[in-house]
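Check my protein:
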Amino acid sequence: MKEEEATMSQVRQVGLLAAGCQPWNKDVCAANGDRFAYCATLAIYIYQLDH
């Protein structure tokens, strides 16, 4: 029986909006197919999927 290798994708942090920072931008939490944002209590973390 032939074993199949699993391919894994990784995510890396590409941005951080820390508490107390005021970004004056209308697209603060924009996302697309390869990026997502995680909103924590004191910060917003932005990640990108590495294929």
